[in-house]
Amino acid sequence: MFASTPARAQQIEPRAFSNAPTGVNFLLLGYGHAEGSVVVDESLPLKDADLNVNVTALAYARSLAIYGLHGQVNMVLPYAWLSGTAQAFGQPVSREVDGFGDLSARFAVNFVGAPALTLKDFMSYRQKTIVGASVNLSVPTGQYESGKLVNISANRWLIRPEIGASHVEGSLTFELAAAASFFGDNDDFYPGGKKREQDPVYSVLGGVVWSLPHGMWTALHGTYFAGGRSTIDGVKSDDRQGNTRAGLTITFPAARQYSVKLFAGTGVSTRTGGDYDLYSVTLQYRWGGGL
């Protein structure tokens, strides 16, 4: 859930389309660290950015029954500390700031292969192929100062519809998903009062999840995202993205109702922005639904 906090259009989240007993609640507390060219707006006049971002995030999710189908809703609220240096207009600049990130919410429903099940019925459920869809909404509630080159919030709305599928063969689950990120305008862009528009970013994610004994699993995924050219006060920028990232996830149970997720991700190829390393750890507690 927290693998994409610095840049939500680039998210890597294994098992985003899977089944779970209805009525189960999930409370998650995560910490992430990113370093490199971690910049919210690629159109900013920054070069050689070397930024460090530390993020804590609190999230809640609930498994739902929607007309006999499995669904889920979740919300994420991050808080970030950012510091680092870059070149701007030929001069070295530095920035140190902390504050809340943008609040986000996601609603998902699996419409093939994932019926809504009680915990008792779920015990005999065996996944084969699941197809689902989701929509993620990000609200500009985070820290933002128009007179600063680097901020934690992008100061704009984001909506991200996605469709995905997962297929199980033995202990392996193969996953594929496609998404499009649509952005609202930032009407107070640097150095203040400018209007920044951005074309949609289109992405595709693929990977494999390996189920291990005792409730453990590991996943290797990659994502490619393209588009996102920006326009500032009617002038188009040369910042179209065409980047590839990869991520490794390991999850293991810590107790009956607790689990821990470890994630590491990096840029593989980068045209504009997004060239950073990311590490995170998330503690999950689940309750309800007969657990």
What would your notes on this structure say?
This protein has 291 residues and is mainly beta. The protein has one domain: Lipocalin (Beta Barrel). 1% of the residues lie in helices and 64% in strands. It is built from 1 helix and 17 strands. It has one helix spanning 119-122, and strands at residues 25-36, 46-66, 69-88, 91-100, 103-115, 129-139, 158-169, 172-183, 186-189, 194-198, 201-211, 217-227, 230-232, 235-236, 241-255, 258-269, 276-287.
Q: What global shape is seen?
A: elongated
Helix and strand composition category: mainly beta
User: What's the main sheet like?
Assistant: 12 strands, antiparallel, barrel
What is the CATH top level name?
Mainly Beta
Percentage beta strand: over 45%
* Oligomeric state of the chains in view: single chain
Specify the number of helices.
1
How many beta-strand segments?
17
Report the CATH architecture: Beta Barrel
List the SSEs and their pairings.
Elements: E1 25-36, E2 46-66, E3 69-88, E4 91-100, E5 103-115, H1 119-122, E6 129-139, E7 158-169, E8 172-183, E9 186-189, E10 194-198, E11 201-211, E12 217-227, E13 230-232, E14 235-236, E15 241-255, E16 258-269, E17 276-287
Antiparallel strand pairs: 1-2, 1-17, 2-3, 3-4, 3-5, 5-6, 6-7, 7-8, 8-11, 9-10, 10-13, 11-12, 12-15, 13-14, 15-16, 16-17
List keywords for this structure.
mainly beta, Lipocalin, 1% helix, disordered N terminus, twelve-stranded antiparallel beta barrel, 64% strand, 291 residues, 17 strands, 1 helix, single chain
